[in-house]
């Protein structure tokens, strides 16, 4: 199923995630999935992509400063049950965020199920940019979020 993922930068400091989660909870927004990484990894990926396919849009000194500053932030990706309401809340809170379509699959929680999903992407020639997911140890289902390069093709393949 195609879902809208929100990616945002959050200050990498104690209490920031709790404050964000509290704001979402107060607005009645439930977090369905979440992953956090040091933003410097993300920024380094941008630098590599810039060198391959993107045009330089700022002087080298700006990129160096951006890379240094990015260690002070975390990149958070999340799926919520009320995306529009969450985006309004984030806009009012002056968060820096973006949205992207992803494939969220609820799969059986047993050995080999994730392998089968990933193999299906591969058989169709769809590269997976990143994936995250989780399950409870004795649960019957897992939720995995895939960010494929070709969202339209992936949506057709996994619509069932």
Tell me about this structure.
- The chain has two domains: 2-99, VC0802-like (2-Layer Sandwich); 101-157, Alpha-Beta Plaits.
- Helix content is 40%, strand content 34%.
- The longest helix is centred in the first third of the chain and has 14 residues, at 39-52.
- The radius of gyration is 17 Å and the shape is globular.
- A six-stranded antiparallel β-sheet has the order 2-3-1-4-6-5.
- A hairpin with a 5-residue loop joins strand 5 (128-135) and strand 6 (141-148).
- It has 160 residues and is of the alpha+beta class.
- The protein has six helices and six strands, in the order E-H-E-H-H-E-H-E-H-E-E-H.
- The chain has helices spanning 16-26, 39-52, 60-70, 83-92, 113-123, 151-157; strands at residues 2-11, 31-38, 73-80, 96-108, 128-135, 141-148.
- Helix 2 packs antiparallel against helix 3.
- Mean pLDDT is 84; it is low at 52-60.
- The termini are close together.
């Amino acid at each position: 199923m195609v879902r809208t993922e929100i990616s945002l930068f959050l200050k990498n400091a104690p209490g920031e995630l709790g404050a964000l989660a509290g704001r979402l909870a107060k607005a009645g927004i439930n977090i369905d999935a979440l992953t956090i990484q040091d933003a410097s990894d993300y920024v380094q990926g941008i630098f590599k992509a810039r060198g391959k396919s993107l045009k330089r849009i700022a002087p080298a000194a700006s990129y160096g400063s951006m890379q240094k500053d990015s260690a002070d932030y975390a990149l958070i990706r999340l799926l919520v049950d009320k995306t529009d309401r969450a985006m309004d809340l984030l806009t009012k809170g002056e968060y820096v965020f973006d949205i992207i379509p992803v494939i969220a699959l609820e799969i059986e929680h047993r050995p080999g199920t994730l392998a089968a999903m990933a193999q299906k992407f591969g058989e169709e020639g769809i590269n997976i940019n990143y994936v995250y997911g989780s399950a409870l140890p004795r649960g019957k289902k897992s939720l995995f979020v895939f960010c494929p390069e070709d969202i339209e093709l992936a949506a057709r393949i996994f619509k069932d």
